[in-house]
Amino acid sequence: MKNLKQILVAILVLTSIYSCKKDEQKDTLSKETISAKWVVGGTTDYDSFEFNKSGNYIVVKNTTTKSTNDQIILFGTYEIIDNKTIVLSDFGTLILSKVDENSISFSIKLTSNPNNEIIINASKQEEMGSTTKTELLCRTWELVSLNGENVAGTVDEGTVLFSKAGTYLVTWYNGESGLAQWKWKDATEIKLLYSWEETPVWAEANFVEIIELTNSTLKILEKFDDEDLLYVLKPLVNTKSSTIKSSIELNQKISKKGLLKK
Question: Looking at the domain assignment, is residue 214 inside a domain?
Answer without folding.
Answer: yes
